[in-house]
Amino acid sequence: MTGMEAASPPLPQRDRVQIQPPSPSIPTIDLSSSDPTPQVRRACSEWSAFHVINHGVPPSLLKEMRSLGVEFFQSPMEQKTRYSCDPTEGPTAQGYGSKMLARDGTVLDWRDYFKHYTLPLHRRDPTKWPHFIPNYREVVTQYSNEMERLAKRLLSIISQSLNLPPSYIEDAVGDLYQNIIVSFYPPCLRPDLALRIEAHSDMGAITLLIQDDVGGLEVLKDDQWVQVQPLEDAIVVILASMTEIITNGAYKCSVHRALVNADKARLSVATFHDPSMVRKIYPAPPLITAENRAKYKEVLYADFAKSWYYGQGPDGERNIDALLIQ
Ligand SMILES: O=C(O)CCC(=O)C(=O)O
Ligand SMILES: [Fe+2]
């Protein structure tokens, strides 16, 4: 350094280059690697949410699913309302709807959505899905099958990552109840008034989510919100409440939310895999020892689902805390 440089006046604060640490994001796991189990263990225990790539679901199917969603929500209202949810069926009804969940005067979830019942097969009735978009029913059927396959594979890796038999979690939840919800968040200059979904954790076992390139999904990590950057062709894996109970808290459910964009509409497709309503869910006995006692009370899944929808839990974010053994 020369004396002249040393003498130059310091740059004003605004002109200095700010070295920003790279923003943290959820881990990305390559499912085609020889053994993804250690990475899954780490991602589940540290993040409760992660991206998977090379997951075996054709990228063209992910793209088609997103395009169908956009086409549906951009269709004339009279087309969409032919598939409106039946209000007498309550908040879990299949079909096209808008406001989904409010509690104590607070809107927790406000968006346009289309919910499809897809599994077990006796719940799947494609005649209840839009007819006016070519291939809609075929694509949703294929998407449902692919998501089921991936969810089962992930539940098996997650079980093995805790030294449980591969089928442990799948057996514990019984027949997988799968629902696919396509959500559409129109742009809004006042995001505080806009369609969005507030912080929550999902009810069932595992959620597989895809989003478009707008972004807006965030996960809570160490009390900080972290953006889930859109990653084309990847699928976001979100651990849900029943997995936290079965793993006795080794893996927590992910608290997440979705924000709206001021000038772009956003679309996401969430595929939920839940236990059947008659299943009793409790911590896996092989994970319980004298030093590591059961941390959660047993719950009938139907009772938990009811508390999730009707807010009998202690707060909107982790309804599961009501089941903690003190
Ligand atoms: O739209 C999103 O990205 C999140 C949706 C979500 O978390 C949910 O439907 O449970
Ligand atoms: Fe969610």
TrEMBL record:
Cited SUPFAM superfamilies: Clavaminate synthase-like
Keywords in alphabetical order: Iron, Metal-binding, Oxidoreductase
Domain Fe2OG dioxygenase: 175-275
Region (Disordered): 1-38
Pfam families reported in the protein's UniProt record: 2OG-FeII_Oxy, DIOX_N
Gene Ontology molecular function terms on file: metal ion binding; oxidoreductase activity
Database matches in InterPro entries: DIOX_N, IPNS-like_FE2OG_OXY, IPNS-like_sf, Oxoglu/Fe-dep_dioxygenase_dom, Plant_2OG-oxidoreductases
Annotated family: Belongs to the iron/ascorbate-dependent oxidoreductase family.
Protein's name in the database: 2-oxoglutarate (2OG) and Fe(II)-dependent oxygenase superfamily protein
Protein's organism: Rhynchospora pubera
